[in-house]
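It is time I had a proper look at our fold encoding. Can you supply me with one protein entry, sequence and fold together? It will help me judge whether the discrete encoding reads sensibly. Leave the record below and I will have a look:
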Amino acid sequence: MSTRGRQAEAARNDLRLLRAAHEVFTTQGFDAPVSAIAKAAGVGMGSLYRRYRTKEELLQRLCMIAMERGVEAAEAGLAEPDPWEGLCLYVRTCVGFRAGALAPVAGTIEVTDEMWRTARRSTELAGRLVTRAREAGVLRSDVTTLDISLLMEQFSRPAPGGEHPHVKERLLTIALDGLRAPGATELPGEPPSTEWYEGRWGSAP
């Protein structure tokens, strides 16, 4: 096999591993053995360990991918001229790829500098979406960027007994309508802080 062919095969194996790891971890729990991931991906344990020496490295990579996709979703939302449609596009896209599915690993893995940088870029772009929608008068004034992030986390959890084809979309539509201005019911308590949110993952550099 040529060098290019080996590289292409390695890339395909890596993609299969990452997809399998996301599925195994988010359905079987984060203490699932890596052997289950290799089996689901159809690759040997040697292939897995050549790419990811530890389960932590694998989880770090999965978190980076989720954050990078969150950045792309926010950029797509900001490219949408309508502030409300842009915010909805962002939320729906993130819920679609289950952006918050890895939140339960917070505090259990080391957060790299690259992860912190990407997370802050994602938060900054999401904040711009929220500010734009609020200034346009379409987002209720008491909703924060972290409220929306935590809402997306809730929708990223697997449904008990399997997914019904339309339940998540119905509930997400209800939730999005709840974000619209002016809001019928005052939100209880103080909004979550960035320090609390980031503190779940560890001490930021």
In short: The chain has a mean pLDDT of 89. Residues 3-28 form the longest helix (26 residues). The two ends are 44 Å apart (CA to CA). The CA atoms of residues 34 and 55 lie 7 Å apart.
